[in-house]
Design brief:
The chain is an alpha/beta fold and about 280 residues long. The chain has 11 helices and 12 strands. Helix 9 links the parallel strand 11 and strand 12. Helix 1 runs parallel beside helix 3 and helix 9 packs parallel to helix 11. The chain is globular, with a radius of gyration of 17 Å.
């Protein structure tokens, strides 16, 4: 089992143990203290392959690699300090089917890993934590069972992220196949209230399209919560990295298709964001 200093990548451990529905407690993370924005490469796993989807549609998957471990090593060699991994089979079915690939990535690289997709019970969180995964991302279950999300934050303070995937401002769940009535902004505030260590915000309409991120919606969320926010979806150029960095207060940005297709060089993006 891996033992890591959790606070070293900017998500401060919530030492108040995430009391459910308490008053907004004082957090150690302060946006003004952030020195840089980091660029986080994504590895989306489907049936053991590294793929990218268009706007989250499982029938529109492009396979980029049949070796997730080599892909992870490639991103680490380019300077990545954190890798974002999604079990797409888990996201669509609720049953994680790429655990062995995730385990192999963990064994192969020493950087921090965050994993989401199909985390629908504490046993899944326990298993991922036991593998040495640094952060676990909960999306569907966070909106269906806020009490469970709070309990997970209590058990793993500083290690549970809220995955907020939105379309036209409304939260989507179950692999983006079901759109709820909840707004992304209100949901973000609730997740902070329940003890989330951070938020990953994805605009579904932008994801995999290489049309630029939804800077305005991302900035709105980053402006109202006091926990780290990571932007995802639509990044296609170094200019997009600059636009997101200009928002201020963003902890990081996830990039997937852009680095696989070659429209962005990961090493250059990391250097630009760190300035």
């Amino acid at each position: 089992m891996y033992v890591r200093e959790l606070s070293t990548i900017g998500f401060e451990v919530n030492r108040m143990n995430a009391t459910c529905y308490n008053e907004h407690h004082k957090r150690e993370h302060k946006k003004g203290e952030q020195k840089k924005m980091i660029v986080i490469p994504a590895i989306d796993l489907k049936e053991g392959f590294c793929v990218r989807l268009l706007q989250g549609r499982k029938e529109e998957a492009t396979t980029y690699s049949n070796d997730p471990v080599e892909t992870a090593r490639r991103w680490v060699s380019a300077g990545a300090e954190l890798i974002h991994i999604v079990d797409l089979d888990g996201a669509f079915t609720g049953e994680q089917k790429n655990i062995r690939s995730i385990e192999r990535i963990r064994e192969a690289v020493g950087v921090r890993l965050e994993v989401g997709g199909g985390i629908r019970g504490m046993d899944r969180i326990d298993h991922l934590a036991g593998l040495g995964i640094d952060r676990m991302i909960i999306g569907t279950l966070a909106i269906e069972n806020p009490q469970f999300f709070c309990e997970a934050c209590r058990k793993y303070p500083g290690r549970i992220l809220a995955g907020i995937d939105a379309k036209n401002g409304r939260v989507a769940i179950k692999g983006w196949e079901e759109i709820t009535e909840r707004t992304a902004l209100s949901f973000a505030l609730e997740m902070e209230h329940l003890g989330a260590a951070g938020i990953i915000y994805t605009d579904i309409s932008k994801d995999g399209m290489l049309v630029g991120p939804n800077v305005e919606a991302t900035a709105e969320i980053a402006g109202v919560v006091g926990i780290p926010v990571i932007a995802s979806g639509g990044v296609s150029t170094l200019g997009d990295i600059e636009r997101l960095k200009a928002v201020g207060g963003l902890y990081g940005v996830i990039t997937g298709k852009a680095i696989y297709s070659g429209s962005i060089d990961l090493r250059e993006a990391i250097a630009l964001a760190a300035v």
